[in-house]
Write a structure and sequence with these properties.
This protein is of the alpha/beta class and about 450 residues long. It has a domain of about 220 residues: Rossmann fold (3-Layer(aba) Sandwich), CATH 3.40.50. It is built from 15 helices and twelve strands. The strands form three sheets. It has a six-stranded mixed β-sheet with strand order 3-4-12-9-10-11, sandwiched between helices. The chain has a four-stranded parallel β-sheet with strand order 7-6-5-8, sandwiched between helices. Helix 10 packs across helix 13, helix 12 runs antiparallel to helix 13 and helix 14 crosses helix 15. The longest helix has 20 residues.
Amino acid sequence: MTSNATSIVCAGCGFVVAPAEPYPFRCPNAIPGDDVDHVLVRELDPAHVGFPQGDEANPYVRYRELFHAYHFGLGHGMTDGGFVDLVESLDKAVAAVDGRSFLSTPFLRSDELSERLRFSSEGGVWVKDETGNVAGSHKARHLMGVMLLLLVAEQAGLAPDGERPLAIASCGNAALAAAVVARAADRSLRVFVPTWADPDIRARLDALGADVVVCRRTEGASGDPPYLALRTALEEGAIPFTVQGPDNGMAIEGGETIGYEMVSELARTDVGLDRLVVQVGGGALASSCIRAFEDAALLEARVKLPRIHAVQTLGGYPLRRAYDRVVARMADPTSPADIVEGLTYARAHRSEFMWPWEEEPRSIATGIIDDETYDWAAVVAGMLATDGSPVLVSDETVVEAEAMAHVTSGIPVDPTGAAGMAGLLELVRGGEVGPDERVAVLFTGSKRLSGRGGTRR
C-alpha cells in the first residue's frame, strides 16, 4: 500500500513510476539515442497534502509531508514518528562526521548590500546563506533527501541492495557533501573527480573513506570526464548518489528544502519577492528552487512565484545557448501555449538544445562550469514561465561580487557561491532591476582556507 500524496513522473516522456519502486531515480525509458530529455520529477497531490506550517529547526522534519520518502514510508508501515526518528538519527550521525547538522539557514534582507546597490527602503536584496550548511554548501541538502529515501526503502524490505556502492561525479562541494552523508549512513561511495580537483578536497574525501577516481579528459572526446565515468559506474550497478536530475530526480526534492525555507519566511513576513537570481552549473539548485515555489503555489501558500534569472559565466554557458534556441522556436515567448509547445519539442529533441560545451569551460567559479546543464529544461521552463532570463557574467564581476558579499555581509562565500550575486550586479547595471524591487540571491558555498581553488588550468 502507498500514499496518494506523491507520484513520480518523467518530465520527458510521461512515464509514471510504479508506487512501490524503491529506486525512482532514472527513467527506465532513458536509452541511448532516443534524444528525449528524461528526468523523473516528484508530483504532489494538493488533495492529500498542504504546505507545512510548522517551525521545526530540521528542514527534513519540518517539510516531511512534502517528501516522497515520507509518503513511501507511510505506505509501507512506517509511522510519522518513525520517519522523524529516522531523520534525527541520520542527522545526528551527520553531525558526528561533519560537526554540523541540518538546520534551516538564514534568509534575510541585507541592509548594507541593499544600500550599496541603491535599492530603496521598499526594495532590497534578500540573502539565503547556505555557507553554514553540512559540508559547507547547499549540496548536502540534495543528497540527504536521497539517503532518506534509500533508508526508508531498506527498512521497508524493498531495497535489499544495501551493499551496492553509491557513486557521484563532482569537482568539489557535491563530492564532499556526498562523502559526509554516505559516511554517516555507513555506505560505500565512489567519487569521480577531474584532474584539477583541489588537493585539500581530495584529502578530505580520502579521510571520509570515499574511493576517489581521478578522470582525465581524452583529446577529442565530448563531455565531462568524471560524468562519463559516473555513467559507466551506474551501468555497472552503482546507485546514483548525485545531484544531476536526469540520473537521480530525487536529488531535486531534497534541494527543495532551500526554496521551502524561503517560502516560509516570505509568508511569515508578508514579503513579496520580485526576482530570484541563482547560479547554475548542472542546474539542480535552480531546478530545486523553482520547483519549491511552484509547489508552494500549487498548495496555495501565501507567496508569488518570482522572476527567475539563471547565472552562468562567460567561460561556458550551455544553459543560455539552450534558452536562446527554445525561444527562437516561439512566435511569442510570453504566450503560455507557445511556451508549452516549445518546451515539449525541446524535451523530445534534446540534442538540438543541450550538448557539451565545445571547449573545456574555464572560470574562477569552478563549481558552475559543467560541460552541460543537466537540469536545463526545468530551468528554462522556470525562466519562461516567470518572464525571467539567463544572465552571463565575467570572472571579473564574480570577483567583485565575492568581495562585495564579504564586505557587506561578512559571509565567507566562495566565487561559485557568489556567482548569483554577480548576476544581480549585471541586472542592476543594465537597468533591468528597479530600486523598489525585492530580489533574492543565494550564497551557496563557503570559501575554503587553502585558497587553491580557481580557474581551471
